[in-house]
């Protein structure tokens, strides 16, 4: 009687991991390597200043209107819910503290995540993906032009700059919208609202919020550029890369948000 056992049938999942055992790690490694190269070229000449300005304007143009459309109702909803809770507790005069703290520490950076990754990063990925399938990237390499220095670095820096500016805009909208809604709709005392703004929010919270937005923008830019440059195939591959950019950017940015928030809480002791 033979002791040999029948061969186990390979499932699609086992077949994939047998052929590509390190595919996810290679993707993450490639992302980090390209990100490091992009930041290294930011301090090397020649710096693509014109491309940086053009990309900053491009990302700002595609992100500004969505930012306004998301920030205004989002901040009003948060202020409305917060004021209802504070009224039940008899502390309606603290609505200014809650509106400022929520807008600056969480609402501003989170709206920045949604807009920069959902609008700006996808546009950059589609642009680079289209250039890749048209073999423009290979043509640049043949001419001795480094695509990371020429295309990626300006886009990553532009994404970080626009995210920083959008975060400031959302914070202003959050505090201003909270004031208008609280005072004119829910009858909160204007002086008490203004006095409570600095109760929980100071320079440290503003700095941490700005750091969050800057890091979010840089990460979204790196993810978008990486997915755009590794596209293979035709137009369908570009569409898939754009969809993956949104998913990967959201996953990375939410994790980074938790880490930076935890560090900020420890530093500010709040």
From TrEMBL:
Keywords: Membrane, Transmembrane, Transmembrane helix. It comes from Gordonia soli NBRC 108243. One of its GO terms (cellular component) is ATP-binding cassette (ABC) transporter complex. The gene is yrbEA. The keyword Transmembrane helix applies. InterPro entries: Permease_MalE (IPR030802). Pfam families: MlaE. This is YrbE family protein. GO terms for molecular function: phospholipid transporter activity. The chain crosses the membrane at residues 23-43, 64-86, 106-126, 156-175, 181-201, 213-235, 247-269. The keyword Signal does not apply.
């Amino acid at each position: 009687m033979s002791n040999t056992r029948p061969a186990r049938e390979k499932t699609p999942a086992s077949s994939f991991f047998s052929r590509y055992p390190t595919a996810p790690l290679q993707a993450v490694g490639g992302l980090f390597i390209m990100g490091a190269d992009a930041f290294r070229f930011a301090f090397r000449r020649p710096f693509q200043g014109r491309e940086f300005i053009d990309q900053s304007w491009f990302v700002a143009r595609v992100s500004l209107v969505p930012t306004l459309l998301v920030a205004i109702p989002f901040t009003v909803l948060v202020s409305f819910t917060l004021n209802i809770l504070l009224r039940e507790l008899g502390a309606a005069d603290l609505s200014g503290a809650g509106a400022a703290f929520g807008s600056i520490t969480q609402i501003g950076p989170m709206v920045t995540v949604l807009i920069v990754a959902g609008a700006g990063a996808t546009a950059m990925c589609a642009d680079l993906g289209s250039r890749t399938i048209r073999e423009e990237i290979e043509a640049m390499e043949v001419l001795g032009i480094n695509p990371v220095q020429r295309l990626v670095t300006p886009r990553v820096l532009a994404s970080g700059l626009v995210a920083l500016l959008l975060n400031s805009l959302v914070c202003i909208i959050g505090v201003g919208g909270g004031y208008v809604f609280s005072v004119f709709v829910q009858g909160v005392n204007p002086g008490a609202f203004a006095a409570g703004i600095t109760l929980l929010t100071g320079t440290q919270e503003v700095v941490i919020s700005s750091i969050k937005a800057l890091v979010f923008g840089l990460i979204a830019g790196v993810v978008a550029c990486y997915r755009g440059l590794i596209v293979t195939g035709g137009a369908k591959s570009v569409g898939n890369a754009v969809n993956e950019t949104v998913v990967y950017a959201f996953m990375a940015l939410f994790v980074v948000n938790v880490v930076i928030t935890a560090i900020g809480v420890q530093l500010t002791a709040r």
